[in-house]
Amino acid sequence: MAEAYIVGAVRTPVGTKKGALKDVHSADLGAHVLKELMNRTGVDPAAVEDVIMGCVMQVGAQTLDIARTAWLSAGLPENVPGVTIDRQCGSSQQAVHFAAQAVMSGTQDLVVAAGVENMAMVPMGSSVPMGPEGPTAGLPWGPGWGERYGQQEISQFRGAQLMCEKWGFKRADLEEFALTSHQRAAKALENGYFDREIAPLNGLAQDEGVRPDTTLEKMASLKPLREGWEITAAVSSQISVGASALLLASEEAVKRHNLTPRARIHTLAVCGSDPVYMLTGPIPATEKALAKSGLSIDDIDVTEINEAFAPVVLAWLKEIGADPAKTNPNGGAIALGHPLGATGGVLMTKLLHELERTGARYGLQTMCEGGGQANATIIERV
C-alpha cells in the first residue's frame, strides 16, 4: 500500500466565544488556513485533487458545503472540489483519515484535510431544536432509536457525568486535571511552542482561552452543570472559534511538487461505542489502533486526546495505562478550546509540531465523538 505523508499543517489561534474571531465568517475562517497552507507548502493549488473539511453545525454560515465555499473564498482555483463531512467532534480528524485513505489507495495524490467551526456565529445545537433535557420533538431520534435505548436523556453532559460515576471520579479529581491543562498551556504559550503552527488572524496570534491565573479555589466556586453532578464549566472544553488545515501527499506528489514529508500516516482506526455514555470511544479506538500498528502505548511519544471533559482523558489514562506526562503535554481543550469541526485538525497540527519540537518519533491522536464513536490516528515523524 502506498504511503501518505503530511507535508503541511496550520491552524488559526483558537478564539473564545466573545473574542477576536467571533465575527469572522466561517467560510473566511476556513479560507484563511487554506490559503496559508498553500503558501507554506508552496504547492500549486490547482494540483490539489480534493478538499475534505469537517464541520459539525452545518447551518447558517456553515451550510452549502463550506469546504467548497471556504476554498473559493480564499481565491483558490475553481477546478478544485470540496466536500464537508460530519463525524461530530472528530470531523476533521476523519477528514485526515479520508484524505490519507485516498492517497494510500492510489486514487489521489494531493488532498487537503481541514476543519472549521465558529461557535460564536453558529452556536452548538443550532442544527437541532433543543429543550432543557436535550433535542425536542423526538429529533434526531425516532421510534427505532426509542425501541433500542428508550426515552432517556442522550447528551455529552450526561455522558461525562456517567463516566464520573462509572470510574469513580470526584470533582476534585477533575479540577486537578483541568488546572494541569491550563498550566501546561500557559507554559506552551510563554515558550512559543505553538507559534510555528499558527496563522494569526484579526490581530490574534495566540490561543485566547488559557487562564494562567486560575486556581483550584476558583474552580471550586463554580456551580455544577446540574445539582449533584461532578461536571462544571471548569472541567469542560470551551466554546470556541477556529480552523485547521493539513496537506497530505503521496510519494509521487512529494517528488513532483518538491515537497518535504514531515510525518507519515502510520495507522488509522475508528470505532463505535456506547451512545449513551457517548464519550468512552477513545479507549477502544486506541486499543484498536495499537493492535493494528504493532506498537504498545509505551512506544507512543506524544498523545493528543481531546479534553471534551476531564473524565474522558482520566478514564482513558486509567484504562490504557498511558503516561500522563506524555498526554496533552501542552494542555488541551479545557484550556485551549474546542472549535468542534476544527478540533481534529488542530490536534493533529499540534501533535505534528510537538513531535518536531522534541525530536520524537510516534504520535497518537484520539477523540470522543457524538453518537458514541472515536477516531484514533498514529503518525510517525520522518
TrEMBL record:
It holds the Pfam family Thiolase_C. InterPro entries: Thiolase, Thiolase-like, Thiolase_C, Thiolase_CS, Thiolase_N. It is an enzyme of class 2 (transferase). Keywords: Acyltransferase, Transferase. Signal peptide: none annotated. Transmembrane segments: none annotated. One of its GO terms (molecular function) is acetyl-CoA C-acetyltransferase activity. It comes from the Bacteria. The active site is at residues 89, 338, 368. Residues 5-252 form the Thiolase N-terminal domain. Its EC number is 2.3.1.9. The keyword Transferase applies. Residues 260-381 form the Thiolase C-terminal domain. Belongs to the thiolase-like superfamily. Thiolase family. This is Acetyl-CoA C-acetyltransferase.
